[in-house]
Amino acid sequence: MNLKYLGTAAAEGIPGVFCECETCKKALALGGRHIRTRSQAVIDNALLIDLPADTYLHYLQHRFPLYSIKQCLITHSHADHLYPLELEMIKKGYSHLSDYSPLHIYSDVDGYNKLSEVVNYYSIGEVRLHLIKLNKPFAAGEYTVTALRAAHGRASSPVVYIIEKDGKSIFYSNDTSEYPEESWAYLRTLEKPLDLISLDCTEACNNAEYEGHLTLDRCAALRDELIRAGAANAHTQFILNHFSHNGKHVSYDEFVPLAKERGFAVSYDGMEVEV
Ligand SMILES: [Zn+2]
Ligand SMILES: [Zn+2]
Ligand SMILES: [Zn+2]
Q1: Ligand 1 centre and the CA of 188: distance in Å?
Q2: What is the CA(14)–ligand 2 centre distance, in A?
Q3: Peptide bond before residue 257 is cis, with ω within 30 degrees of 0
Q4: Where are the domains of the chain?
Q5: Most CB atoms closer than 10 Å: which of 113, 115, 130, 135?
Q6: 3-state secondary structure the chain
Q7: How confident is the model at residue 42, as a pLDDT?
Q8: Phi/psi at 112 (nearest 5 deg)?
Q9: CA 270 to ligand 2 center in whole angstroms
Q10: Hey, CA dihedral for 198, 201, 204, 208, is it positive or negative?
Q11: Distance, CA 54 to ligand 3 centroid (Å)?
Q12: How far apart are CA 56 and CA 159, in angstroms?
């Protein structure tokens, strides 16, 4: 599988949409990998993860075939991950497609409700919504996907996803801190270690202890825990993702060596990884 990071920031983006802090000024001045848009990823140009307002920007920047994608997973309903109103533009007339088979979107309950409201209000027949069940593998096109509960508050019904194809696996795990027991219980039953684990590192080198996001130190401890649980091993690629401008030493050039020292790669907008 090919995982392409389209956006790698927390809700504000880097630079933050309304911000003139030093990290944001530096990102603007240096550009390139210092700029992070809101989180989204695509696997094999076929399976989209999240549908933020930055989706259109990502389409322009990375030229992935958004028009032909038929599978989309939603991690949770926060606005930096889900902007349902964009879906009106997939309707016949607003779009011209060679294949009008539906775009399948999978979400837990809060995202599902927000999507349903828009899909029903605008009568969008080009979209089919699926309410996921936790800890139960399901088919999304050619992929086997399992949603696990994330630790990110309850209101947005957050999940993280294990995505499998051809014996390879990707664990897309952001907007979560250390998993709740029900998710650990599933992770302990995996038949083989995951090939790639993408972790939330919103707070970078801060000492934040709150539930919902992680720091570099906590990512290192979580990796150890995943290895102990049998969900990862020495061959698992670990990538840190989903960064906030409020994170200490979060600027790309500062953070990459700090993460590397601890054995982590760092995502950037446009990064591609193979498993
Ligand atoms: Zn987020
Ligand atoms: Zn800022
Ligand atoms: Zn969130």
Answers
A1: 26
A2: 7
A3: no
A4: 2-274
A5: 115
A6: CEEEEEECECCCCECCCCCCCHHHHHHHHHCHHHCECECEEEECCCEEECECCCHHHHHHHHCCCHHHCCEEECCCCCCCCECHHHHHHHCECCECCCCCCCEEEEECHHHHHHHHHHHHHCCCCCEEEEECCCCCCEEECCEEEEEEECCCCCCCCCEEEEEEECCEEEEEECCCCCCCHHHHHHHCCCCCCCCEEEEECCCECCCCCCCCCCCHHHHHHHHHHHHHCCCCCCCCEEEEECECCCCECCCHHHHHHHHHHCCCEECCCCCEEEC
A7: 98
A8: -60, -45
A9: 21
A10: negative
A11: 15
A12: 23
pLDDT, tens digit, 9 for 90 and up, residues 221-234: 999 999 999 999 99
Q: What pLDDT score does 222 carry?
A: 98
Q: Give the number of whichever ligand sits closest to the CA of residue 201.
A: 1
Residues 192-214 have a mean pLDDT of 97
Tokens matching residue 83: 């902007």
Report d(CA 3, CA 146) in Å as an integer. 17
* pLDDT tens digit sequence for 63-84: 999 999 999 999 999 999 999 9
| Paired tokens of 113 | 């409700």
Residue 50 CA: which ligand is closest? 1
Spacing, Cα 10 to ligand 2 middle (Å)? 11
pLDDT band at 256 (very low <50, low <70, confident <90, very high): very high
CATH topology of domain 2-274: Metallo-beta-lactamase; Chain A (3.60.15)
Please give the Cα distance from 211 to 202 (Å, whole number): 12
